[in-house]
Amino acid sequence: MKNIVIIGANQGIGYYMAERLLASGNSVTVLDIQTDAVEELRQKYPKSVLPVLADAKDFDRIEYGVKKSIAHFGDIDAAIHNACLCVFENEQNIGCDIYQNVLDVNFFGALRLAKSVLPNMRKAGKGRVIFTSSGVGVTGFQNISPYAASKGAIESLAKCLQIENEEYGITFHLFHPPLTNTKSASGLPVPKEFKADAKSVGYGLADRIWSKKFMICHSAIQTAQMKFSYQHPLFIGKMMSRATRRTVGSEKNENRQ
After folding, report:
1. Is the pLDDT of residue 254 over 90?
2. CA-based diameter of the chain, in Å?
3. Which DSSP string corresponds to 186-202?
4. CA angle, corner 122, sides to 118 and 128, nearest 5?
5. Residue range 215-232, pLDDT digits in tens
6. Please, what is the Cα angle at 154 between 66 and 200, to 5 degrees?
7. How far is CA 90 from CA 66, 84, 206, 250, in A?
8. If 0-12 CB within 10 Å is exposed, 13-18 middle and 19+ buried, where does residue 193 land?
9. Measuring CA to CA, which residue among 12, 13, 6 is closest to residue 32?
């Protein structure tokens, strides 16, 4: 049984990831600002799931949750930062405070988790840390620059920390889910039929959590798409933005009719 800590798993991809990991016989500690759904999971897995109220912006609570996980389940084998804050607005209409708030959850939350688990992992001589990234952090996209910038930042953070911690037997990785039908993506003007199913994505990522690859996707198709995005980032970003504008324009015309 492996001990896994996840920040952001009370709903969406994170919830299904936790559900799948528990079903596979692992212990899972979930840190989130809400834990009602995880409490229901605990009824089914009373000895292997530990919900902890914690905000990704609060280092003390994250550290508390990590220490509690170690006390309950032993050394941490994997830690996943999946907390997400997304703002859908053009740069002209938002201030620096919005950027700071998004980065505080998405980037600094990942850093806080890493700093909380790395002392234990270094002592144990093992472990992996996974940050949930996004394709827009590679390609860019319209009206989502705070979120995309935060994801681009954790891409670099993961690479730096991988280099710095190799000698301790610790690896860093990136989860790259597709555009998924979740609450955080609900404000994106894209029809639901173009979004992936959260359960399929969460289960797929959980099944690949021990992959040796730096970039981990839930499917072979998503892996191929991300490899192409890394090769042609701005081209993909512009293409997706144009496609979204066309889709939104078509929906507005249909609504007028």
Report:
1. no
2. 65
3. TTSSS-GGGSBPHHHHH
4. 60
5. 999 999 999 999 999 999
6. 75
7. 37, 19, 34, 21
8. exposed
9. 6
